[in-house]
Design a protein that fits this description.
By secondary structure, this protein is an alpha/beta fold. The chain has seven helices and seven strands, in the order ααβαβαβαβαβαββ. Bound molecules: S-adenosylmethionine. This is Methyltransferase domain-containing protein.
């Protein structure tokens, strides 16, 4: 599939995505999420980037839509899906997460990922509302963000409040330490759309 837009993927970003620390973070957050899933799900990966989360979930049999405004990211995501033999279960949409309510129907997804995006949002509750709009009632929202060691940090306690303000019920809160002894760590919160 050809996608239009930004056809530039900085090498530093690619190196980071492929680093052991990043792979470990994707593996841990996938394992946490999987504990809450039962059978194949329709997943929206908002800000899905190069598809590392999407391909992992597609390999488990889930059907994943990667949404990202950057065309180069989506091209890389499809190449990654191809390489792993799951291109039929990975789809791409070039758009902003804030536009999700206009792009999808109200029950189109069982799971929405918001991984490493919320810390950049000016209106976090507004973004979470936009992302729960296409989520079916009872569907799950997984939010991952840096807890420490990053330029943009959004405290997990604030995100818990944001999720409740957006009408979601918090089910679980995990700490995700990427590397022992390394200052960069993440939180992951799983919430249910009520
Ligand atoms: C830090 S990466 C996160 C990638 C991946 N989800 C992860 O956890 O590694 C940020 C991604 O967010 C995308 N992005 C930035 N602003 C966005 C927005 N408003 N809506 C959706 N994606 C956005 C960028 O293009 C980039 O691919």
């Amino acid at each position: 599939m050809t996608v239009q837009g930004v056809e530039f993927l900085p090498d530093s970003r690619r190196d980071w995505q492929d680093s052991p620390a990043a792979r470990r973070r994707h593996a841990v957050t996938e394992a946490n999420l999987t504990r809450h899933l039962d059978g194949p799900q329709r997943v929206l990966d908002a800000a899905g980037g190069t598809g590392h989360d999407a391909v992992r979930l597609a390999l488990r049999g889930h059907d994943v839509t990667v949404l990202d405004p950057a065309g180069a990211m989506l091209t890389a995501a499809m190449a990654c899906a191809d390489d792993h033999g799951v291109a039929d279960r990975v789809h791409v949409v070039q758009a902003m997460a804030e536009d999700a309510p206009e792009l999808f129907g109200p029950h189109d997804f069982d799971v929405v990922l918001c991984h490493n995006l919320l810390q950049f949002a000016e209106d976090r509750v507004g973004l979470l509302r936009a992302l729960t709009a296409p989520l079916r009632e009872g569907g799950l929202l997984s939010v991952v963000g840096p807890a420490s060691g990053a330029l943009f940090v959004c405290p997990a306690s604030d995100v818990l409040d944001d999720l409740r303000a957006a009408g979601a019920e918090v089910l679980a809160h995990y700490g995700v330490d990427v590397q022992s002894g390394h200052p960069l760590s993440y939180f992951q919160i799983i919430a249910r759309n009520v």
